[in-house]
Structures are given as C-alpha cells and as structure tokens.
C-alpha cells in the first residue's frame, strides 16, 4: 500500500473553522484518537539519514470527553518519501497484541528507541469512491511539544495512482482556504526533536 499524505501547520488558525470548512465540503467526523508512537532507529543504517521510519503505535479511541473507549497497538514500517512535495511513502503495518513484548523484541535485536511522540487526533472522513473504502482522511492533530497540524491522506494500491490522489488532497486544501505552499515535509518526531534540541 502507498500512503499519499500532505501536512500543513495550523499555527494561528481557527481550528473550529477548519473543521466546519471540512464539513462544508463533505467531510464527516469519524472519531478522536490519542496516539503514542515509539520510534526505533536501524541497526545497520540510521533511519534519520535514509528517511525511513519504524514505530510501535498505541492508538486509543476516545469519547468526546477524551476518556478511553478501547486501544489497539500497531507496528509500522514506512519507506523513504517518494517525492519532494508530499509525505507519500510505501507503508507496511500490522496489529500486535502486546506492546511490551514487541518493544523487547526490537530492543533484543539491537534497535534503539527514542522518547515517544504523543498526539490527540480529531478525524474526519470524506468518501470519494463507489464504496466506503475509498476516502480522504483528514486529521486535526495536537502534538505534544510540536503544535497543531492538518494531515490529509489517501491510501492507494500503486505508484501510478499517486499523482491523482495528490491532486485530490491539494483540492481539499484549496477548498478550505489553506495555501499549499505551506506544506510540512518533516515528521512529528523530527519537528519535536528540532523544537526540543534533541539530536
């Protein structure tokens, strides 16, 4: 699978207006999540230099009052970005039952973890195809020690579908009045480490 994604900062933006604007063009609320990501660096290469990512994510579905409904854990590998204008990557992800055991496996193999990145994510979704499986996901993210961002994402089967998917994401930005020249290509981990002066 290829995750076609763009991200923009929402600094000095009215978050409720952005959500209202997304709803005006057909997005519907699809949930709130708290996500805590533990990233690992490679054994034979530095993922910061190769632009790869390996993480364990604890993802909790939340009620409106931010109380936890349920939790899931995933292991995700992301390859390097496929272009210079978006965060599009090949992604492999699978659910795991035991976060501590998975962490111990990675560490036993020599992977080094970094301080977790935590965010609360308000999700909206717009169906764009014949089935519910074809959609654009909008995430309004509040990231600890980073700030607030909007991510737009479509998952496609092949690289040939990437440009069409990117066009759809850029159209959403235009419709809600956000300049596509303000794209952020860095990960939340990179942004957090920059802000806190972590090497």
UniProtKB/TrEMBL annotation:
<protein>
    <submittedName>
        <fullName>Adenylate cyclase class 2</fullName>
        <ecNumber>4.6.1.1</ecNumber>
    </submittedName>
</protein>
<dbReference type="InterPro" id="IPR033469">
    <property type="entry name" value="CYTH-like_dom_sf"/>
</dbReference>
<dbReference type="Pfam" id="PF01928">
    <property type="entry name" value="CYTH"/>
</dbReference>
<keyword id="KW-0456">Lyase</keyword>
<dbReference type="InterPro" id="IPR008173">
    <property type="entry name" value="Adenylyl_cyclase_CyaB"/>
</dbReference>
<feature type="domain" description="CYTH">
    <location>
        <begin position="1"/>
        <end position="194"/>
    </location>
</feature>
<dbReference type="InterPro" id="IPR023577">
    <property type="entry name" value="CYTH_domain"/>
</dbReference>
<dbReference type="GO" id="GO:0004016">
    <property type="term" value="F:adenylate cyclase activity"/>
</dbReference>
